[in-house]
Amino acid sequence: MMGVPDWMIRQLEKLADWIGAFSWEGEHIGRKILLGTGAAAVGAAVVFFLTVLLTPAEVPLSGDKTLAAPIYIEVKPGMTADDIGRILAERHVVAHRYYFWLLAKTNGVEGSFQTGTYKLHRQMEAREVLEMLVHGKTAPLRFTIPEGFNVNEIAERLGQEGIAPAEDVKAEAVQFAPYRYMEKTAAATYQAEGFLFPDTYEIEPGMTARDILLMMARNFDERLTEDMRRRAADMGLSVFDLVTLASLVEKEARFEEDRAIIAQVFLERLRIGMPLQSDTTIQYLLHAPKEDVTFADTEIASPYNTYQHIGLPPGPIANPGTASLEAVLYPADTDYLYFVADREGHNHYSRTYSDHLVLVEQVR
After folding, report:
1. Does the pLDDT at position 45 exceed 70?
2. Cβ within 8 Å of residue 27, ≥6 positions away
3. Pairing state of beta strands 71-75 and 347-350?
4. pTM (2 decimals)?
């Protein structure tokens, strides 16, 4: 991507200020636009200068998946080309905000932006963005949360897509528990964890982080049918315990056929008072995921550490989908106590610890 020298940027800022009452700090200076052939010539020269030098700077880099990630921009009544250009540059949609401003100015569309929410992406052509905003090519505000995302991952996605600040989402999730079955436990990192149903959502502009969490929690409540609740009660599980177990299954099972078997292993270990020893609970405590949990990791002092504590962790470690919830409600009819995943994510099961050690040597 071709860079623009600092001295050139400074000169372009001065020219942009001269012909359009614009300053780099975003303040509009109260002077009239110059009229006459001289000013027109200067304006044309600046446009040509910018068109030739700056357009090549907005060439997407192939293979970078972040370029395709949606970025939502809301255009509100009264916003100027300067206001919009600043946001576009800050979100890396366009390379230079003053180029966007000048493009709008010279095309006579500075006051023609249509309000609404626009779905954009990084490193777009300024002309393409301008056309979308002028013609009102708005898009529904949508986001998708995959099965197994935890609160931190949900918050980061919402922040990256410009839907809600990540820190706002995390702050709201700490004590968020609008339903009675969302038991408030002092040791839980987020009370909302586990109850934000993974799905694709469409939201209205202006929704707050709490509004979004409420929408996701209501979706979970609707998906948790009366039959599922009765089945959990018959098994001696509260909704909270059901979701906690399902979150472990969601994180452990990469393939569908493993869910019900893993659920059976955990339920059997709970029945006989054996620690769950789930690596996924250790991963929940780490700042970044690791391919293999170490012995030192299993000694982390935390109620989430299911190597050190018998029973369930203080709460869910992720937000499970329907398949994992049903796996807990209808576990496989086996008597396994151990499992280990190979490098492709397929699990191998055993009934005794000695058999388990043999499998570990074989698949790892």
Report:
1. no
2. none
3. unpaired
4. 0.71
